[in-house]
Amino acid sequence: MSVETRVRPVILIVEDEESYRDALDIGLGVEGFVVVGARTIAEARQQLTVRKPDLVLLDVMLPDGSGLDFCRELYDTTRLPVVMVTARSSEVDVVVGLEIGAADYVTKPFRLRELVARIRAVLRRPVTEDDHEVIAFGDLRIDLARRTVARRGTEVDLSRKEFDLLALLASRLGQVVTREACLDALWWGLDLADTRTLDTHVKRLRQKVEDDPAHPRHLVTVRGVGFRLDP
Ligand code: CA
Fold it and tell me: Cα(35) to centroid of ligand 1, in Å?
């Protein structure tokens, strides 16, 4: 479902300044958004358990923590698009410089028109949480957007690297992926891991997704070349 066909996108505003929250509540409401407010990170977490917003508008300075840290957490756990709200231009460098996963940012004071334009632009970006991002075969279901793997309907607990490796192989289902390509993708070509480390990850992954890890049916070794994920 594209964003345009949704009647009213839900925006979660995490902001401790009541005047801003109230102004945005009214302003964004007029623009056709449903606004949900949170004063603290704790309240935001609570809201997220109740409903999933389409976008999070997140202040940097919050009473119970840093919006930057929370932004990174949201990116890692939900992939929800986040627009950061900075109070000082000095914070902009931090928002832009750090890889916290923010989709965009605005600086206070901002015009409602500008904010709405940015929110709409972010919402128009390709939606990653989509059925197309799911690769399913056999008893495995790999949700690339949510970074989850389920086996016979039960979620499998994978480390970040294990998931990255599985996702890489799944993106080329049935094709050989070389050891070099795996090392490049998982460790960005940096000299952080050798081929033994890769084998360790493959082994652990097999223990989690294969019925018989010693005789893998899906995650196959192609001797001297690399690995292949068979459906
Ligand atoms: Ca604040």
Answer: 18
Task: Dump pLDDT digits (tens) for 16-37.
Answer: 999 989 999 999 999 999 999 9
How close is the Cα of 62 to the center of ligand 1, in Å? 5
According to the model, what pLDDT value does residue 6 have? 44
Residue 107 lies in a domain: yes
Weakest mean pLDDT among 114-118, 162-166, 168-172, 174-178: 168-172
Distance in Å, CA 87 to ligand 1 centroid = 8
Same domain, 119 and 166: no
**What is the domain range of residue 188?**
130-229
On whether both 26 and 105 belong to a single domain, the answer is yes
144-149 CB contacts, 8 Å cutoff, 24+ apart: 144/170, 144/171, 145/79, 146/79, 147/79, 149/208, 149/209
Q: Do residue 66 and residue 24 come from a single domain? A: yes
Same domain, 117 and 177: no
Kindly give the distance from the C-alpha atom of residue 82 to the centroid of ligand 1, in angstroms, as a whole number. Answer: 16
The model's pTM is 0.54
Question: How far away, in angstroms, is 7 Cα from ligand 1 center?
Answer: 30
Q: Please indicate, yes or no, whether residues 139 and 97 belong to a single structural domain of this protein.
A: no
